[in-house]
Amino acid sequence: MRVSVLLPALLTPLAATAQIIDSPDGETAGIPANYTEAKAGWFDLPDPLVGADGKPFADAPAWREKQRPMVFETVETNQYGRVPPRPAAMTFDVFDKGTPAFGGKAIRKQVKITFDEAGEHFLDLVIYQPAGGGGKRPVLVNIGWIGNNLAVDDPGVKTGRQWNKDKLGREAATAPNPFGKLNFLPMALERGYAVAHFNYTDIEPDDPAGFAHGIRKLYLKDGRTAPAPDEWGAIAAWGWGLSRVIDYLETDDGIDAAKVTIFGVSRLGKAVLWTAARDERVACTLASVSGSGGASLNRRRYGERPAHLVARFPHWFAANFAGWAGREDEAPWDSHFTLGLIAPRAVLLQTGSTDKWSDPYGEFVAARAATPVFHLFGQKGIEEYSQPPHGKPVMNRLGYLMHEGGHGTVPDDWPVFFDFMDRHL
Ligand code: GCU
After folding, report:
1. Which terminus in the chain has less CB density within 10 A, N or C?
2. How confident is the model at residue 24 (pLDDT cuts 50, 70, 90)?
3. Is 19 helix (H, G, I), strand (E, B) or coil?
4. How far is the CA of 266 from the centre of ligand 1 (A)?
5. How far apart are CA 135 and CA 146, in angstroms?
């Protein structure tokens, strides 16, 4: 059954979203991209609270027990793909057990997490805890773009690895990335948070041609040469790696594993959203510009669409997802299901006012559509009918922040992120 859960939001005069300025339509990868709000479409969304019998669930325990598994399976099998459980062979080698860093402001730890007996698949994790005070700290886990050595100015950090697209192999990490530096680290330490970082391509190369070097290959079944159509794409694989980091953090006596926040930007914003939906140990999620394939609605014909995603990044999603490109209106789910799966845990969607490719308004509408799930748990979400202007964040359990500017984070986002964590952890 479908219901127009969004009617009030969609009837809001579009003038309320004046910060989205229309521009001429364009195209990417030969596929048109619309930037005219009036052409973004009207649509009904499936209701995550309505069961297979057409009746809405009215209480949280019943929804959790009966409906959530169905909502989860729908998104998992159609979009991101099933992931394997924690590997039995996994080991944690804490090769740096606590070294003073940054002039004594922090204690650094480094851990090699190995997934398989052969030692072929591993990730390097670096953790900074605020020095002094003792006790267990809440932790912000950044699934990052670069080797740990490049993410911080700390000569004690082991040189990480990076994927080389030309040589089709991993090599020592030397290439910086503008998204990559942990500029927020001093603020995190001041505010009492530990920070953990690893490079996402340690799990799975971000390259369709890199499959032979990624974790997904290790789990191929039934003589297959690629995952089954409902099995993990790279985004789910990166998120699986995040879960393995949480497995380690649960064993670290300096970390409060009940207060794990995960943070990722762009494709890694997509990865943190799906990780939070899948792994209920995640207490708080900061999804930066997750856009299409993340928090933005697939149905909205604005900016990047599923057709662009599967054409340009065929390795990101379960193979089934490609079958929905161009048929989004028929799909049994949309991104508000992913957000609803995170309820009642905290999640903040951060967007940028000029980042039209990521459709910031589409993220807002999805969050509004997921809000009834948060209400079911007695939590607030997006209570406003029109998109808040930039610089006016919604700080409820399901929150929304649009900065003035483009793709990525800006320095002003960080105080908001830490306020959000302080409030909800
Ligand atoms: C591309 C892609 C986006 C993605 C972004 C990124 O722009 O189209 O979906 O979020 O890359 O990860 O940087």
Report:
1. N
2. low
3. coil
4. 6
5. 30
